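User: Here's a chain of 329 residues. Predict its fold as tokens.
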Amino acid sequence: MPTEASWIPRFAGLRVLVIGDLMLDEFIWGSVSRISPEAPVPIVNVTGETFYPGGAANVARNLRSLGAKTSLLGIAGDDASGSRLSGLLTEAGIDTAGVLRCPGYHTILKTRVIARHQQVVRVDRERPFTLTPVLRTQFLEFIDQAIERIDGVVVADYGKGLLDQDLADHICRTAAARGKVLAVDPHPHTSLVWKSAAAVKPNRIEAFHAAGMRPSAAVENVMLDEPLLTAANRLLRDWQPRCLLVTLGEQGMLLFEAGQAPHHIPTRAKEVFDVSGAGDTAISVFTLGLMAGATPRDAAELANRASGIAVGKLGTATVTPAELEASFA
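Assistant: Prediction complete.
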């Protein structure tokens, strides 16, 4: 079996803390047979409905599916969506001691209507949020207490108001001081700096925004994409991570390490049914690979394979160790 695959059994038992914006993903499944007489839109005849943890909660779900012992730090509302999300996390075996249920806060709910394997529309229900001093204190205390019991931290920033620079700095300092692997999935509109993380995994647009550059059009040969190479090298210089993994959709991934040439990993997706949560799968596998002791190249190869599996499934999908191992067959 290839070298990369040998790291997969080591995922079991790794202890990970996920920090970020929690959401509930709702999928309404149906069929379309006609167009509405009221407006030029399809009429969806609903045949089913499913719910999944979303946002940072989906990262936690992916990590748990891969065998890691996973705990979660975030905010959910004291509402029906918050209760459903909490129940789903508990069923998945995720430690929810750090999920703070806040009265007056509305759990973020994203509803996707799917017909004939195609997303018809997405409806987002969320309200602006800013971390209060009381919640900030609770978060800092939880991080300081949990850091000794874990092997690594994954930050999933969805730009919903949970994370700010002070909290980001504390996470970076604490992980570095305790020698823990810190991986960050940044958001393009928060402008947060993640200094000295072990790994940062932006997509192409996020890389440009984080580097303070205007996104350019993608080119066929990613190794000749000079604006992207410039943005990535700027992030390596300013943030000083151990590695930077830029996800490029159908073009695969591009791995950057200080002092080394960029490494391109072509996509392994055979069929793409749904890209919902594919980035969550990528950061989960990439982080576990690094925590298990894999090189960034081996970890990135595993993350690329896992993403290819995830996009071939409908809904907010996860990947199992058996599926990841089978991808090497």
